[in-house]
Amino acid sequence: MRQTMKKTIITVVGEDTVGIIAKVCTYLADNDVNVEDISQTIIQGYFNMMMIVDANNSSKPIGEMVSDLEQIGDEIGLKIRCQHEDIFTRMHRI
Amino acid sequence: MINIFEVYETNKMIEQEMLDVRTITMGISLLDCCDSDLNTVNRNIYDKITRVAKDLVSVGRDIEREYGIPIVNKRISVTPIALVGGPACHSPEDFVTIAKTLDKAAKTTGVNFLGGYSALVSKGMTPADENLIRSIPLALASTERVCSSVNIGSTKTGINMDAVKLMGEMVKETAEATKENSSMGCAKLVVFCNAPDDNPFMAGAFHGVTEGDTVIHVGVSGPGVVKRALETVRGENFEVLCETVKKTAFKVTRAGQLVAQEASQRLGVPFGIVDLSLAPTPSVGDSVAEILEEMGLESVGAPGTTAALALLNDQVKKGGVMASSFVGGLSGAFLPVSEDQGMIDAVNRGALTIEKLEAMTCVCSVGLDMIAIPGTTSAATISGIIADEAAIGMINQKTTAVRLIPVVGKDVGDTVEFGGLLGYAPIQRVNTFGCEDFINRGGRIPAPIHSFKN
């Protein structure tokens, strides 16, 4: 049960191109993943997008989402990562 | 709520600065495998390891994938085999059968190293201890993944000089037994003083008798992350330098603590400790030497190196201790010469000698580690070096270790290639003045005065 409240963080890094968010969001909608927050910025010349999503109702295990999103990233020439929120909160919050 | 810059920082550490969890090590007690029949002991050991560790590698991979942080090694440590095999083994050859069983179990479970082919002889040796020690050369020559360690001294007991003498001979014999393979057996053999019961790092890991039935320990790393952080504070004073190391160590350790808790929960095995160590790899940018140089040294080995290492270690601990609920193991910077490109470069340019490395081990590197020396070095000289390191550990109440490789057929000026995580090393010069008469005395060095605290 501890797992159910966990959020997942999706990050997209690379050259800015048309339709990045659309591609990722379509995939997430198809898999019953709810997007709760999106932010984006340019860091050191690279487009950085971060999504906080709730994947607890998704039928896909996170391991598969990681591979699927990686593949979508490869298709459009971007690096897409999907990680449990904990790796970030543990590191940056006491 | 976490923000985009924090997410970026973490992912930058992982992707560009080689932050990783160096090892998840499952400690397994084999005390319940004891039997007076050798075949039964071997069967019990194989069955227990392959049963309790069957999911270790796959769970490690799942965590790696879901959190997006590499977990470089999945490993197993077991109860010192001299204790487990004692009732059944009556010769060194008997012990070698257990080494082969451990190797088979390591391969079945998919771990890359299994530690605990060990004996704890800090005060004296039982016949079983001595048989195990005498079996080490053959055991390491006839297995691939088994690692061996022997504890020959402690602050509480003093130094067992008979064992020191014997280990000098065993290091030589192991080099000879594995000479076809660059004397590689010695890379899997560590001689300790004050060995901890819960060390997750190879080659010195074993599951101490003070531990429970099974336990998960995690070793973190991240020299690259510390180096990059220090690049941002060039020229600043020591207060700023220390604060930067401390904050970075906190973040690195938190990642280790998270992985340890997840692994413990998923495997249903209690969490033991996080080992706060900076462990380098031969990859560029993953070097402890480079951190010391970033602090302002022209080359590691220059005057100032010992002070730089002292502050690095202390700050890593100060940052790490708060990030983890239990800290243990070795928790000190590792300076394995062959595994750290910066160290190799320093040796090659003549800046770093064994004597300087020895001084560095006084302030908390773990020991003289992965140092290749001429194959002609005598057993007594190796014993002398072991005794010196053990004395540093005994007097300073810290763990020290020796992992020397007297490479058969090589001399100063040559280089030896071990491959993979073990890297390559230039053969280093050893002081060749004799110490035979000292080593041959036999007996023990008594415990130091400050060990009597009761």
Describe this structure in words.
The complex is a heterodimer of chains A (94) and B (454). Chain A contains 3 helices and 4 strands; from the N terminus they run βαββαβα. Chain A has a 4-stranded antiparallel sheet, with helices on both faces. Chain A starts with 7 loop residues before the first strand and ends with a helix. Chain A has a single domain, classed as Alpha-Beta Plaits. With 94 residues, chain A is of the alpha+beta class. By secondary structure, chain B is α/β, with parallel strands linked by helices. Helix content of chain B is 43%, strand content 17%. In chain B, the strands form 2 sheets. In chain B, strands 1, 2, 3, 4, 5, 6, 7, 8, 9, 10 and 13 form an 11-stranded mixed sheet that branches. Chain B has a two-stranded antiparallel sheet with strand order 11-12. In chain B, a hairpin with a 3-residue loop joins β4 and β5. Chains A and B meet through β1, β2, β3, α2 and β4 of A and α1, α3 and α9 of B.
Features:
heterodimer; A: 94 residues; alpha+beta; Alpha-Beta Plaits; four-stranded antiparallel β-sheet; 3 helices; 35% helix; 34% strand; B: 454 residues; alpha/beta; Anaerobic Ribonucleotide-triphosphate Reductase Large Chain; 13 strands
Beta-strand percent range of chain B: 15-25%
What is the top-level CATH class of chain A?
A: Alpha Beta
Annotation, overall tally of beta strands of chain B: 13
Q: What strand line-up does the widest sheet of chain A have?
A: 2-3-1-4
* Secondary-structure-derived class of chain B: alpha/beta
Q: Residue share in helices of chain B?
A: 40-55%
Give the low-confidence spans of chain B. none
CATH fold-type name of chain A: Alpha-Beta Plaits
Strand content of chain A: 25-35%
CATH superfamily descriptor of chain A: ACT domain
Q: In terms of structural class, how would the helical and strand content of chain A be classed? A: alpha+beta
Mean pLDDT of chain A: 88
> Main β-sheet of chain A, in a few words?
4 strands, antiparallel
Cα-atom radius of gyration of chain A = 13 Å
Topology pattern of chain A, helix = H, strand = E: EHEEHEH
Chain oligomer state: heterodimer
